[in-house]
Protein backbone atom coordinates (compact mmCIF):
# COMPACT_ATOMS: atom_id res chain seq x y z
CA UNK A 1 0.00 0.00 0.00
CA UNK A 2 1.25 3.48 -0.88
CA UNK A 3 0.71 6.75 0.95
CA UNK A 4 -1.84 7.89 -1.62
CA UNK A 5 -3.81 4.67 -1.29
CA UNK A 6 -3.74 4.99 2.49
CA UNK A 7 -5.09 8.54 2.31
CA UNK A 8 -7.91 7.40 0.04
CA UNK A 9 -8.74 4.53 2.37
CA UNK A 10 -8.81 6.71 5.50
CA UNK A 11 -11.03 9.27 3.75
CA UNK A 12 -13.62 6.55 3.19
CA UNK A 13 -13.26 5.30 6.76
CA UNK A 14 -13.65 8.79 8.23
CA UNK A 15 -16.94 9.13 6.39
CA UNK A 16 -18.25 6.37 8.69
CA UNK A 17 -16.47 7.47 11.86
CA UNK A 18 -19.67 8.24 13.76
CA UNK A 19 -20.76 4.63 13.30
CA UNK A 20 -17.47 3.06 14.48
CA UNK A 21 -16.59 2.94 18.17
CA UNK A 22 -13.16 4.42 19.04
CA UNK A 23 -12.16 4.84 15.41
CA UNK A 24 -9.28 7.17 16.33
CA UNK A 25 -7.74 4.49 18.53
CA UNK A 26 -8.16 1.80 15.89
CA UNK A 27 -6.42 3.74 13.12
CA UNK A 28 -3.82 5.30 15.41
CA UNK A 29 -0.94 3.11 14.05
CA UNK A 30 -1.70 4.43 10.54
CA UNK A 31 -1.70 8.15 11.26
CA UNK A 32 2.12 8.56 11.48
CA UNK A 33 2.39 7.35 7.88
CA UNK A 34 0.32 10.31 6.71
CA UNK A 35 2.85 12.76 8.22
CA UNK A 36 5.77 11.43 6.19
CA UNK A 37 7.40 13.86 3.81
CA UNK A 38 7.93 13.09 0.15
CA UNK A 39 11.64 12.51 0.77
CA UNK A 40 10.96 9.99 3.56
CA UNK A 41 10.44 6.32 2.81
CA UNK A 42 6.94 4.87 3.16
CA UNK A 43 7.20 1.47 4.91
CA UNK A 44 4.14 -0.69 5.51
CA UNK A 45 4.94 -2.91 8.50
CA UNK A 46 3.27 -5.65 10.48
CA UNK A 47 1.93 -3.20 13.07
CA UNK A 48 0.11 -1.32 10.32
CA UNK A 49 -1.36 -4.48 8.86
CA UNK A 50 -2.53 -5.55 12.34
CA UNK A 51 -4.59 -2.36 12.61
CA UNK A 52 -6.80 -3.61 9.76
CA UNK A 53 -7.33 -6.97 11.51
CA UNK A 54 -7.59 -9.27 8.48
CA UNK A 55 -9.35 -12.64 8.79
CA UNK A 56 -7.31 -15.53 10.22
CA UNK A 57 -6.59 -18.28 7.73
CA UNK A 58 -7.57 -21.73 8.93
CA UNK A 59 -9.98 -20.43 11.56
CA UNK A 60 -13.68 -21.29 11.03
CA UNK A 61 -15.98 -18.63 9.57
CA UNK A 62 -19.62 -18.02 10.44
CA UNK A 63 -22.01 -17.26 7.60
CA UNK A 64 -25.34 -15.76 8.64
CA UNK A 65 -27.89 -15.87 5.83
CA UNK A 66 -31.40 -14.50 5.60
CA UNK A 67 -34.03 -14.15 2.92
CA UNK A 68 -37.09 -11.90 2.90
CA UNK A 69 -39.91 -11.70 0.40
CA UNK A 70 -38.03 -9.55 -2.11
CA UNK A 71 -34.35 -9.66 -1.12
CA UNK A 72 -31.59 -11.83 0.30
CA UNK A 73 -28.59 -10.98 2.50
CA UNK A 74 -25.64 -12.53 4.27
CA UNK A 75 -23.00 -11.69 6.86
CA UNK A 76 -19.60 -13.40 7.06
CA UNK A 77 -18.02 -13.18 10.52
CA UNK A 78 -15.10 -14.64 12.44
CA UNK A 79 -14.01 -14.60 16.08
CA UNK A 80 -11.07 -12.29 16.75
CA UNK A 81 -8.25 -12.82 19.26
CA UNK A 82 -10.54 -11.95 22.18
CA UNK A 83 -13.12 -14.51 20.92
CA UNK A 84 -15.56 -11.76 20.02
CA UNK A 85 -17.46 -12.07 16.77
CA UNK A 86 -16.24 -9.60 14.15
CA UNK A 87 -17.86 -8.89 10.77
CA UNK A 88 -15.71 -9.64 7.71
CA UNK A 89 -18.05 -9.06 4.78
CA UNK A 90 -21.73 -8.35 4.31
CA UNK A 91 -23.89 -7.84 1.24
CA UNK A 92 -27.45 -8.15 -0.01
CA UNK A 93 -29.35 -7.88 -3.26
CA UNK A 94 -32.89 -7.77 -4.56
CA UNK A 95 -34.57 -10.70 -6.24
CA UNK A 96 -35.50 -10.63 -9.91
CA UNK A 97 -38.92 -11.50 -11.27
CA UNK A 98 -38.21 -15.23 -11.51
CA UNK A 99 -36.60 -15.48 -8.08
CA UNK A 100 -39.60 -13.83 -6.43
CA UNK A 101 -41.54 -17.04 -7.11
CA UNK A 102 -39.04 -19.20 -5.24
CA UNK A 103 -40.15 -20.91 -2.04
CA UNK A 104 -38.65 -19.62 1.25
CA UNK A 105 -36.25 -22.58 1.47
CA UNK A 106 -35.15 -22.06 -2.14
CA UNK A 107 -34.45 -18.39 -1.41
CA UNK A 108 -32.17 -19.42 1.46
CA UNK A 109 -30.37 -21.88 -0.83
CA UNK A 110 -29.97 -19.06 -3.35
CA UNK A 111 -28.47 -16.88 -0.59
CA UNK A 112 -25.91 -19.56 0.22
CA UNK A 113 -24.98 -19.90 -3.46
CA UNK A 114 -24.80 -16.10 -3.82
CA UNK A 115 -22.46 -15.87 -0.80
CA UNK A 116 -20.24 -18.68 -2.11
CA UNK A 117 -19.74 -16.93 -5.46
CA UNK A 118 -18.83 -13.65 -3.79
CA UNK A 119 -16.69 -15.01 -0.95
CA UNK A 120 -15.02 -18.01 -2.56
CA UNK A 121 -11.50 -16.80 -1.67
CA UNK A 122 -12.54 -16.50 2.01
CA UNK A 123 -14.61 -19.65 2.39
CA UNK A 124 -12.66 -22.21 0.37
CA UNK A 125 -9.64 -22.72 2.71
CA UNK A 126 -11.64 -22.94 5.95
CA UNK A 127 -14.66 -24.60 7.49
CA UNK A 128 -17.73 -22.38 7.20
CA UNK A 129 -20.49 -22.64 9.79
CA UNK A 130 -23.87 -21.92 8.17
CA UNK A 131 -26.21 -20.19 10.61
CA UNK A 132 -29.81 -19.88 9.49
CA UNK A 133 -33.32 -20.85 10.49
CA UNK A 134 -33.24 -24.04 8.38
CA UNK A 135 -30.65 -26.78 7.86
CA UNK A 136 -29.89 -26.01 4.22
CA UNK A 137 -27.13 -28.60 3.94
CA UNK A 138 -29.44 -31.43 4.93
CA UNK A 139 -32.14 -30.16 2.58
CA UNK A 140 -29.84 -29.91 -0.43
CA UNK A 141 -28.02 -33.21 0.12
CA UNK A 142 -31.07 -35.37 0.82
CA UNK A 143 -32.85 -34.64 -2.44
CA UNK A 144 -33.82 -37.95 -4.12
CA UNK A 145 -32.93 -36.57 -7.57
CA UNK A 146 -30.35 -33.83 -8.14
CA UNK A 147 -31.71 -31.64 -10.87
CA UNK A 148 -32.88 -28.13 -11.60
CA UNK A 149 -31.54 -25.10 -9.79
CA UNK A 150 -31.14 -26.96 -6.47
CA UNK A 151 -28.98 -29.56 -8.23
CA UNK A 152 -26.91 -26.83 -9.87
CA UNK A 153 -26.29 -25.07 -6.55
CA UNK A 154 -25.49 -28.37 -4.80
CA UNK A 155 -22.87 -29.25 -7.40
CA UNK A 156 -21.33 -25.78 -7.22
CA UNK A 157 -21.15 -25.84 -3.40
CA UNK A 158 -19.60 -29.33 -3.19
CA UNK A 159 -16.05 -27.90 -3.12
CA UNK A 160 -16.73 -26.03 0.14
CA UNK A 161 -16.66 -27.42 3.68
CA UNK A 162 -19.91 -26.44 5.39
CA UNK A 163 -21.21 -27.16 8.86
CA UNK A 164 -24.75 -26.27 9.88
CA UNK A 165 -25.21 -24.51 13.23
CA UNK A 166 -28.66 -23.78 14.64
CA UNK A 167 -29.46 -20.09 14.79
CA UNK A 168 -28.54 -18.80 18.24
CA UNK A 169 -26.65 -15.53 17.75
CA UNK A 170 -29.25 -12.77 17.76
CA UNK A 171 -26.68 -10.11 17.01
CA UNK A 172 -25.35 -11.63 13.80
CA UNK A 173 -28.76 -12.68 12.55
CA UNK A 174 -30.16 -9.21 13.23
CA UNK A 175 -27.50 -7.71 10.98
CA UNK A 176 -28.27 -10.18 8.21
CA UNK A 177 -31.99 -9.47 8.47
CA UNK A 178 -31.30 -5.74 8.32
CA UNK A 179 -29.22 -6.15 5.16
CA UNK A 180 -31.94 -8.24 3.58
CA UNK A 181 -34.49 -5.50 4.18
CA UNK A 182 -32.10 -2.80 2.90
CA UNK A 183 -30.55 -4.38 -0.22
CA UNK A 184 -28.08 -2.86 -2.66
CA UNK A 185 -29.54 -2.25 -6.11
CA UNK A 186 -28.05 -3.31 -9.41
CA UNK A 187 -26.72 -6.74 -8.37
CA UNK A 188 -29.40 -9.06 -9.61
CA UNK A 189 -27.29 -11.09 -12.03
CA UNK A 190 -25.94 -14.48 -10.97
CA UNK A 191 -22.31 -15.44 -11.28
CA UNK A 192 -21.16 -18.78 -12.59
CA UNK A 193 -18.50 -20.70 -10.66
CA UNK A 194 -16.32 -23.58 -11.69
CA UNK A 195 -17.81 -26.89 -10.59
CA UNK A 196 -15.39 -29.46 -9.19
CA UNK A 197 -15.86 -33.00 -7.97
CA UNK A 198 -19.22 -33.33 -6.23
CA UNK A 199 -19.73 -35.54 -3.18
CA UNK A 200 -23.29 -35.75 -1.96
CA UNK A 201 -22.37 -36.11 1.71
CA UNK A 202 -20.72 -34.31 4.58
CA UNK A 203 -17.18 -34.09 3.23
CA UNK A 204 -14.98 -33.41 6.24
CA UNK A 205 -13.64 -35.41 9.17
CA UNK A 206 -13.81 -34.29 12.79
CA UNK A 207 -11.10 -34.89 15.39
CA UNK A 208 -11.02 -34.22 19.14
CA UNK A 209 -7.75 -34.50 21.04
CA UNK A 210 -6.55 -34.11 24.62
CA UNK A 211 -3.47 -34.89 26.71
CA UNK A 212 -3.01 -35.94 30.32
CA UNK A 213 0.04 -35.61 32.54
CA UNK A 214 0.28 -37.09 36.06
CA UNK A 215 3.14 -37.81 38.42
CA UNK A 216 3.19 -41.50 37.47
CA UNK A 217 2.10 -41.73 33.82
CA UNK A 218 1.21 -39.67 30.77
CA UNK A 219 -1.50 -40.22 28.19
CA UNK A 220 -3.06 -38.95 24.96
CA UNK A 221 -6.65 -39.30 23.85
CA UNK A 222 -8.05 -38.96 20.32
CA UNK A 223 -11.64 -39.21 19.06
CA UNK A 224 -12.27 -39.25 15.30
CA UNK A 225 -15.57 -39.01 13.45
CA UNK A 226 -15.93 -39.79 9.75
CA UNK A 227 -18.15 -37.81 7.35
CA UNK A 228 -20.69 -40.65 7.60
CA UNK A 229 -20.90 -40.31 11.41
CA UNK A 230 -18.74 -43.29 12.47
CA UNK A 231 -16.70 -42.65 15.63
CA UNK A 232 -13.46 -44.17 16.88
CA UNK A 233 -11.86 -43.64 20.29
CA UNK A 234 -8.11 -44.05 20.86
CA UNK A 235 -6.09 -43.98 24.09
CA UNK A 236 -2.27 -43.92 24.06
CA UNK A 237 0.01 -44.20 27.09
CA UNK A 238 3.15 -42.12 26.61
CA UNK A 239 6.09 -44.09 27.98
CA UNK A 240 8.23 -41.01 28.56
CA UNK A 241 8.14 -37.90 30.69
CA UNK A 242 6.42 -34.85 29.24
CA UNK A 243 4.53 -31.76 30.30
CA UNK A 244 0.79 -31.37 29.85
CA UNK A 245 1.28 -29.10 26.80
CA UNK A 246 3.65 -31.65 25.26
CA UNK A 247 1.04 -34.35 25.87
CA UNK A 248 -1.51 -32.16 24.05
CA UNK A 249 0.80 -31.88 21.05
CA UNK A 250 1.46 -35.63 21.16
CA UNK A 251 -2.28 -36.31 20.99
CA UNK A 252 -2.66 -33.86 18.09
CA UNK A 253 0.18 -35.36 16.04
CA UNK A 254 -1.01 -38.92 16.73
CA UNK A 255 -4.48 -37.90 15.57
CA UNK A 256 -3.02 -36.51 12.35
CA UNK A 257 -1.23 -39.80 11.71
CA UNK A 258 -4.45 -41.79 12.22
CA UNK A 259 -6.37 -39.48 9.89
CA UNK A 260 -3.75 -39.93 7.18
CA UNK A 261 -4.08 -43.70 7.51
CA UNK A 262 -7.85 -43.28 7.08
CA UNK A 263 -7.27 -41.27 3.87
CA UNK A 264 -8.83 -38.09 5.30
CA UNK A 265 -8.28 -34.88 3.32
CA UNK A 266 -10.53 -32.30 5.02
CA UNK A 267 -10.38 -32.10 8.79
CA UNK A 268 -11.93 -29.96 11.52
CA UNK A 269 -9.86 -30.25 14.73
CA UNK A 270 -11.26 -29.47 18.19
CA UNK A 271 -9.17 -29.17 21.35
CA UNK A 272 -9.55 -27.67 24.82
CA UNK A 273 -5.93 -26.45 25.01
CA UNK A 274 -6.13 -22.75 24.23
CA UNK A 275 -2.33 -22.54 23.97
CA UNK A 276 -2.00 -25.28 21.33
CA UNK A 277 -4.99 -24.14 19.24
CA UNK A 278 -3.96 -20.48 19.22
CA UNK A 279 -0.37 -21.35 18.33
CA UNK A 280 -1.53 -23.37 15.34
CA UNK A 281 -3.90 -20.62 14.15
CA UNK A 282 -1.14 -18.01 14.45
CA UNK A 283 -2.70 -15.98 17.26
CA UNK A 284 0.04 -16.99 19.73
CA UNK A 285 3.75 -17.26 19.01
CA UNK A 286 5.54 -20.43 20.09
CA UNK A 287 8.56 -19.27 22.13
CA UNK A 288 9.01 -22.26 24.45
CA UNK A 289 12.05 -24.41 23.73
CA UNK A 290 10.14 -27.47 24.94
CA UNK A 291 7.33 -26.91 22.43
CA UNK A 292 9.00 -25.44 19.35
CA UNK A 293 9.76 -28.83 17.76
CA UNK A 294 6.27 -30.06 18.55
CA UNK A 295 4.87 -26.89 16.96
CA UNK A 296 6.89 -27.37 13.76
CA UNK A 297 5.93 -31.06 13.54
CA UNK A 298 2.25 -30.24 14.03
CA UNK A 299 2.40 -27.68 11.22
CA UNK A 300 4.13 -30.16 8.92
CA UNK A 301 1.55 -32.86 9.57
CA UNK A 302 -1.23 -30.31 9.06
CA UNK A 303 0.14 -29.42 5.63
CA UNK A 304 -0.43 -33.01 4.51
CA UNK A 305 -4.20 -32.34 4.42
CA UNK A 306 -5.85 -30.39 1.63
CA UNK A 307 -7.85 -28.41 4.18
CA UNK A 308 -7.68 -28.28 7.97
CA UNK A 309 -9.12 -25.93 10.59
CA UNK A 310 -8.54 -25.66 14.33
CA UNK A 311 -11.09 -24.52 16.89
CA UNK A 312 -10.93 -24.21 20.67
CA UNK A 313 -13.77 -25.76 22.66
CA UNK A 314 -14.44 -25.89 26.42
CA UNK A 315 -13.42 -29.02 28.31
CA UNK A 316 -17.08 -30.02 28.67
CA UNK A 317 -17.36 -30.41 24.89
CA UNK A 318 -14.08 -32.34 24.74
CA UNK A 319 -15.03 -34.79 27.45
CA UNK A 320 -14.73 -37.96 25.36
CA UNK A 321 -11.12 -37.27 24.32
CA UNK A 322 -10.30 -36.21 27.87
CA UNK A 323 -11.65 -39.52 29.21
CA UNK A 324 -9.45 -41.43 26.76
CA UNK A 325 -6.38 -39.49 27.92
CA UNK A 326 -7.27 -40.04 31.58
CA UNK A 327 -7.67 -43.78 31.01
CA UNK A 328 -4.30 -43.99 29.26
CA UNK A 329 -2.51 -42.15 32.06
CA UNK A 330 -4.27 -44.15 34.79
CA UNK A 331 -3.85 -47.74 33.58
CA UNK A 332 -0.68 -49.62 34.48
CA UNK A 333 0.68 -51.48 31.43
CA UNK A 334 3.57 -53.92 32.10
CA UNK A 335 6.84 -53.26 30.30
CA UNK A 336 6.49 -56.55 28.43
CA UNK A 337 3.23 -55.45 26.80
CA UNK A 338 2.86 -52.80 24.12
CA UNK A 339 -0.88 -52.42 24.51
CA UNK A 340 -3.79 -53.57 26.63
CA UNK A 341 -7.32 -54.34 25.47
CA UNK A 342 -10.01 -52.91 27.74
CA UNK A 343 -13.44 -54.34 26.94
CA UNK A 344 -16.43 -52.17 27.80
CA UNK A 345 -19.75 -53.99 27.59
CA UNK A 346 -23.22 -52.59 28.13
CA UNK A 347 -25.60 -54.17 30.63
CA UNK A 348 -29.23 -53.09 30.48
CA UNK A 349 -30.39 -54.72 33.74
CA UNK A 350 -28.91 -54.70 37.25
CA UNK A 351 -27.38 -57.95 38.50
CA UNK A 352 -30.13 -58.30 41.14
CA UNK A 353 -32.90 -57.83 38.57
CA UNK A 354 -31.49 -60.67 36.47
CA UNK A 355 -31.87 -62.93 39.51
CA UNK A 356 -35.45 -61.85 40.20
CA UNK A 357 -34.57 -59.56 43.14
CA UNK A 358 -35.56 -55.93 43.68
CA UNK A 359 -32.88 -53.29 43.73
CA UNK A 360 -32.42 -50.65 46.39
CA UNK A 361 -33.25 -47.19 45.17
CA UNK A 362 -30.12 -45.04 45.02
CA UNK A 363 -29.88 -41.38 45.91
CA UNK A 364 -30.14 -40.47 42.23
CA UNK A 365 -33.56 -42.09 41.74
CA UNK A 366 -35.53 -39.12 43.00
CA UNK A 367 -39.20 -38.38 42.64
CA UNK A 368 -41.06 -35.14 43.14
CA UNK A 369 -43.50 -36.77 45.53
CA UNK A 370 -41.52 -35.90 48.68
CA UNK A 371 -43.44 -32.93 50.05
CA UNK A 372 -41.14 -30.53 51.86
CA UNK A 373 -41.61 -26.83 52.48
CA UNK A 374 -38.73 -24.37 52.30
CA UNK A 375 -38.86 -23.98 56.10
CA UNK A 376 -38.46 -27.74 56.57
CA UNK A 377 -34.95 -28.86 57.55
CA UNK A 378 -35.13 -31.57 54.87
CA UNK A 379 -35.75 -29.11 52.01
CA UNK A 380 -32.04 -28.40 51.12
CA UNK A 381 -31.24 -32.14 51.20
CA UNK A 382 -34.18 -33.10 48.97
CA UNK A 383 -33.36 -30.24 46.62
CA UNK A 384 -29.80 -31.51 46.30
CA UNK A 385 -30.89 -35.11 45.70
CA UNK A 386 -33.28 -33.92 43.00
CA UNK A 387 -30.59 -31.92 41.15
CA UNK A 388 -27.01 -32.71 42.35
CA UNK A 389 -25.46 -30.60 39.57
CA UNK A 390 -27.37 -27.47 40.57
CA UNK A 391 -26.25 -24.58 42.77
CA UNK A 392 -26.11 -25.64 46.42
CA UNK A 393 -24.36 -24.44 49.55
CA UNK A 394 -21.22 -26.25 50.64
CA UNK A 395 -22.80 -27.08 54.01
CA UNK A 396 -25.52 -28.96 52.11
CA UNK A 397 -23.61 -30.76 49.37
CA UNK A 398 -21.40 -32.99 51.53
CA UNK A 399 -23.94 -34.07 54.21
CA UNK A 400 -26.64 -34.68 51.55
CA UNK A 401 -24.62 -37.57 50.11
CA UNK A 402 -25.52 -39.63 53.16
CA UNK A 403 -29.25 -39.44 52.34
CA UNK A 404 -31.53 -41.11 49.82
CA UNK A 405 -35.22 -41.16 48.93
CA UNK A 406 -36.98 -44.51 49.08
CA UNK A 407 -40.74 -45.00 48.65
CA UNK A 408 -41.27 -41.26 48.78
CA UNK A 409 -39.58 -40.91 52.17
CA UNK A 410 -36.22 -39.39 53.08
CA UNK A 411 -33.75 -41.72 54.80
CA UNK A 412 -30.25 -41.36 56.19
CA UNK A 413 -27.79 -44.17 55.48
CA UNK A 414 -26.37 -45.52 58.76
CA UNK A 415 -22.87 -46.88 59.24
CA UNK A 416 -24.25 -50.39 59.72
CA UNK A 417 -26.28 -50.25 56.50
CA UNK A 418 -29.64 -49.50 58.13
CA UNK A 419 -31.85 -46.75 56.74
CA UNK A 420 -32.92 -44.15 59.33
CA UNK A 421 -36.21 -42.36 58.61
CA UNK A 422 -35.95 -38.58 58.55
CA UNK A 423 -39.25 -37.11 59.78
CA UNK A 424 -40.33 -33.51 59.51
CA UNK A 425 -40.33 -31.09 62.45
CA UNK A 426 -44.03 -31.72 63.13
CA UNK A 427 -43.57 -35.50 63.01
CA UNK A 428 -40.65 -35.20 65.44
CA UNK A 429 -42.92 -33.48 67.99
CA UNK A 430 -45.49 -36.27 67.64
CA UNK A 431 -42.84 -38.97 68.02
CA UNK A 432 -41.30 -37.31 71.08
CA UNK A 433 -44.74 -36.85 72.67
CA UNK A 434 -45.71 -40.48 72.14
CA UNK A 435 -42.34 -41.66 73.43
CA UNK A 436 -42.64 -39.68 76.68
CA UNK A 437 -46.24 -40.80 77.17
CA UNK A 438 -45.01 -44.40 77.25
CA UNK A 439 -46.83 -45.56 74.12
CA UNK A 440 -43.63 -47.24 72.97
CA UNK A 441 -43.03 -48.82 76.37
CA UNK A 442 -40.06 -48.06 78.56
CA UNK A 443 -37.18 -45.97 77.29
CA UNK A 444 -34.83 -48.04 75.19
CA UNK A 445 -31.28 -47.51 73.98
CA UNK A 446 -30.62 -45.75 70.74
CA UNK A 447 -29.94 -48.95 68.74
CA UNK A 448 -33.25 -50.55 69.79
CA UNK A 449 -35.20 -47.41 69.02
CA UNK A 450 -34.32 -47.86 65.36
TrEMBL record:
Q: Which domain of life is it from?
A: Eukaryota
CDD domains, per database record: RNase_HI_like
Q: Which SUPFAM superfamilies match?
A: DNA/RNA polymerases, Ribonuclease H-like
Domain named RNase H type-1: residues: 201-334
- One family from Pfam that matches here is RVT_3
UniProt keywords (A-Z) are: Endonuclease, Hydrolase, Nuclease, Nucleotidyltransferase, RNA-directed DNA polymerase, Transferase
Recorded GO MF terms: nucleic acid binding; RNA-directed DNA polymerase activity; RNA-DNA hybrid ribonuclease activity
Task: Write down what this protein is called.
Answer: Uncharacterized protein LOC110744669
Q: Which organism is it from?
A: Prunus avium
> Which gene produces this protein?
LOC110744669
Amino acid sequence: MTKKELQSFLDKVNFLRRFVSNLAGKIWPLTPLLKLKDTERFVWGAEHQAALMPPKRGKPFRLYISASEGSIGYLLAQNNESEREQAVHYLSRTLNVVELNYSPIEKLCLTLYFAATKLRHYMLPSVVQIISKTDLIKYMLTRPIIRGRIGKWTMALSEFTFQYVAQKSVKGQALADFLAHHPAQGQEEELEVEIGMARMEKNYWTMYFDGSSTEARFGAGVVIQSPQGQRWQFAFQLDFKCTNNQAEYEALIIGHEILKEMKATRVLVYGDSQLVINQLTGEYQCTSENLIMYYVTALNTSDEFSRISFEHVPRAKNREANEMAQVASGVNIPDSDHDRVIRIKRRTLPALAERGMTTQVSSFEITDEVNTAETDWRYPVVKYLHDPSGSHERTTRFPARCYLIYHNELYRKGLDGLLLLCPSAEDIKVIMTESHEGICGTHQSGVKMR
